[in-house]
Amino acid sequence: MQHPPHQSLQVAAVQSLQGRPAAVPKPRVAAREEDGPWHAEAVCRRDEAGLFFAPSKEPTAARLSREEAAKRVCARCPVMVACREHALLQPEPYGVWGGLTAAERRVVLARRRRRAAELRQAPGAGPIAAAG
Question: Less packed terminus of the chain by CB within 10 Å, N or C?
Answer without folding.
Answer: N
